[in-house]
Amino acid sequence: MLVSYKWLSEMLDLSNVTAEELADKMSRTGIEVEEVNQPSAGLKKIVVGDVKECVPHPDSDHLSICQVDVGEDELYQIVCGAPNIQAGKKVIVAMPNSRIAGNVKIKKGKMRGEVSLGMICSLDELGYSENVVPKAYSDGIFFMPEDAVPGSDVYPYLGMEDEIIELSITPNRADALSMRGAAHEVGAIYNQKPTFETLELKEDASEKAADYLSVSVTDEKDTPNYRMRIVKDVTVKESPAWLQNRLMNAGIRPINNLVDVTNYVLILFGQPLHAFDYNQLGSKEILVRRGQAGEKLVTLDEEERDITAENVVITNGQKPLALAGIMGGKESEITDGTTTVAIEAASFDGIITRKSAKQFGLRSESSSRFEKGINLDTVEEALAFAAQMMADLGEGTVVSGEVVGTETKAPETSVTIALAKINRSLGTDLTVSAVSDILKALDFEFTESGEVFTVSIPGRRWDISIEADMIEEVARIYGYDNLPSTLPSGEALPGALTSDQAITRAIRESVEGSGLSEAISYALTTEDKATAFVLEDAPVVALQSPMSSDRGVLRQSLISGLLEDVAYNIARKNNDVALYEIGKVFSQVADEILPKEVNHLGFAISGLWQQQTWQNGKELVDFYVLKGILENIFKRLGLTDVIRFEATTELTDLHPGRSAKLVAGEQTIGFIGQVHPVIAKAYDVNETYVAEINLEALLALDGVGIKYQEVGKFPAMTRDMALLVNSEVSNQQLVDVIKANAGKFLADIKLFDIFQGEKLGADKKSMAYSLTFLNNEATLVDEEVTSAMDKIQAALVSELGVEVR
């Protein structure tokens, strides 16, 4: 909302308050001010010029040579390229050595051989955005008022000496989206009551508006207010300079005197209006209803719109004339030939207006106000004001009466609050008198009895309805700066991470130390993706009103989101991807309203794990790279002996020969494997390996945590053994048997060689292990280690049919 300081000063006494001081005060009382701008800032030596003569340039088909009176003894010759330049007009002149917008300096020069002393300027060159330049001057220079004095500064004629305060209005304070609303706010801050301009409504009693139109509304919920007035015998012309200046300073393009009135009332009252050319309505009936399938409307921007049943439209009883609260139709717009105007003032359902504006991409000043709400008590007043103003500027007549389709006044709202409640909430010691003064400054009617206030809320403040709202109003006007501040009382305890937080941090450090980057994926996805890569089937959690079909269900696994991240990178030629994510997955539990949320840890790696260098060859990611990353985590958490990898073919989304479950005791806590080629093709990714762990299950395991112990004082002993086994026997099976029979001194097991070949047989393989034994209390003797090795070998032979080589 752009607020004119000069216009505001007409409603309040701001003689002792600068615009900057006012902006600071407003920011500290609840309405943020973005900035304060003066349109003339940075401009220099910009004056009024009177074009006395204008002839074509002899060497150009588009330039003109002008002789311009700039208030000096001699005329200035200026070469101008504007198509609308002509003699007898007052124009904007940038003198030699002047500065225009963008800090551009204008110098004396020559154009096609002719001397040019300065420049005749358009409004764009003074810093006005092209979307606020009056329509009549959008392709040329701007003509100043006839009474402008040559040689005088242009700024007062254009309202550029004004200061514009840009307010950042939150949705709950839509009452400030008008000059009157802003004046009430400033009046409360400085304990003044604003005065507003009024127009005496002069009606032609010989005719009635009801003779021109009948108005009906099919659904009062869609359109709580709808009323119209008729202004006849008007002349469409350019608006006076003061009106154009106010609109441009408010960021609105002037069009003509009739349309400009609707925008002026929009800014003044916050009440959107629409003006129809009465003679182009096509009937004497106005019907406000929902749209119908197949209906079309060409709006003022000359775009054809397909109307649906979700839209509210203004019709002539048969076909749409306007999109309610958003934009009028081209067929009934105000043109130079308009002589009779039908003015609409209404309020429309905010939700329908917002959805329709989004549907058509037509969010406007009007729709934004209907979305947030308007003052229902000034709909009639704003319409009467607009009708009389159109009659005055268009030299027409207001037809007697108005036609009302629906009428809804603001509800009578009162809030009762005790002084003790206010002081308790704010930590203050305000008296009854102090609170009374604040309520008077807000211009709220109230009664007080026994230190309890009953406040009648005016219709312009529809954001106030409960005690908390009143407490906020008192705090704002009293001054947030004046509220007492105290330090927290009680004992302060040093902060620390919980055990789970510390372990999760250790996991992050381990994973990132392995070279992976953290990803954050969407929790919402499709049902097919949500149920992929899960260990157990569970009902999905679906949204009632999803943003789209692609984001309608909460995920049950992190892998689908990570695969989308991998695909996003690969599509942009980043083929080497290593990502992890810690996030929640969701499932619906029977007889529970809220879904179950569980933290998971997910991984996805693809491409090269190691680039080729002079020292090393390139290394592609594979199952064992990701397995090693997981083993690093388990080792850091002291879970190496707790969690084991078991080959599986149960997970159909993974490659059946390159996947495994992560098992702790009898509990499966995760999985690891290569994404099935069919799935990889669907995601358009290369060979990719993934893993996912139930993080909460991991943290709940016995013995989890970082453990430290003293380095052993006694030497360790190492023994190697080679085993010939059937090819279906896994490493995990061999390790389990070794651990079960090695005794208490076994410290470590390492698989250092695997060999398969024709010499061994097609169904055989050789696996070589290195076993480390250590006694932390005494030096091991050879007999102890030999005895342990004998037990291990005997168990391997008897349980797995191993041949010790």
Describe this structure in words.
Its EC number is 6.1.1.20. InterPro entries: aa-tRNA-synth_II/BPL/LPL, B3/B4_tRNA-bd, DNA-bd_dom_put_sf, Fdx_antiC-bd, Fdx_antiC-bd_sf, NA-bd_OB-fold, Phe-tRNA-ligase_IIc_bsu, Phe-tRNA-ligase_IIc_bsu_bact. This is Phenylalanine--tRNA ligase beta subunit. Helix 20 (731-741) crosses helix 21 (782-800). The chain is built from 21 helices and 42 strands. Strand 33 (608-610) and strand 34 form a beta hairpin. It has 805 residues and is α+β, with helices and mostly antiparallel strands.
Number of distinct helices: 21
CATH superfamily of the largest domain: Phenylalanyl-trna Synthetase, Chain B, domain 3
Largest sheet: 7 strands, mixed
Give the integer mean of the pLDDT values: 92
**Strands ordered across the widest β-sheet:** 28-31-32-38-37-36-35
Instruction: Give the tally of β-strands.
Output: 42
Determine and state the CATH class of the largest domain. Alpha Beta
Q: Which runs of at least 5 residues are low in confidence (pLDDT < 50)?
A: none
Straight-line distance between termini: 88 Å
Question: How helical, in percent, are the residues?
Answer: 25-40%
Radius of gyration: 40 Å
Question: How many structural domains?
Answer: 6
| Beta-strand share of residues | 25-35%
Please name the CATH topology of the largest domain: Phenylalanyl-tRNA Synthetase, Chain B, domain 3
* Basic shape: elongated
